[in-house]
């Protein structure tokens, strides 16, 4: 029978290697989770104030079977710009503005989260604007300082990257 010189360390080597493999598997699972299921973004600017503050960390769910009016979403335009906005118009809806209010299908919307008056901004859209299939109308909650569908027009469903599920208020506004 051969005597192993470092025999008493064999168990520790195997234990370390097993822990390393478990760590790698966990790391791979986390990377896949954030690539396929969950997205992370930092809110830039005040376009969603008071709902979201500049600098807040938010997580969004990438796998969303259906979007609804009022959902806060991550939007990535073909230009590469990424925004956080609220869906106000769904495919088939008629979007209009009158007397500082948003109208969907002719009905004034109750928007307790909106900051400032809702008014059309300068772009190619004529109002009322009827959304075609697969198009959504998004607005920032801070209507005065928001770059949204009033500027860049209705967005495609493929430009919606996910629905916000949680946000962490890192910076407090006084």
Observed structural traits:
174 residues, alpha+beta, Umud Fragment, subunit A, 7-stranded antiparallel sheet, 4-stranded antiparallel sheet, 2 helices, 11 strands, 18% helix, elongated
In short:
It comes from Laedolimicola intestinihominis. The protein is an alpha+beta fold and 174 residues long.
Describe this structure in words.
The chain is α+β, with helices and mostly antiparallel strands and 174 residues long. The protein has a single domain (38-168), classed as Umud Fragment, subunit A. It is built from two helices and eleven strands. It has helices at residues 10-36, 149-152; strands at residues 38-42, 57-61, 72-76, 82-89, 94-98, 101-104, 107-108, 129-130, 135-139, 155-156, 160-168. The strands form two sheets. Strands 1-2-11-3-4-9-10 form a seven-stranded antiparallel sheet. The protein has a four-stranded antiparallel sheet with strand order 7-6-5-8, with no helix packed on it. The radius of gyration is 24 Å and the shape is elongated. It starts with 9 loop residues before the first helix and ends in a 6-residue tail after the last strand. One of its GO terms (molecular function) is signal peptidase activity. InterPro entries: LexA/Signal_pep-like_sf, Pept_S26A_signal_pept_1, Pept_S26A_signal_pept_1_CS, Pept_S26A_signal_pept_1_Lys-AS, Pept_S26A_signal_pept_1_Ser-AS, Peptidase_S26. Keywords: Hydrolase, Protease. Its EC number is 3.4.21.89. Pfam families: Peptidase_S26 (PF10502).
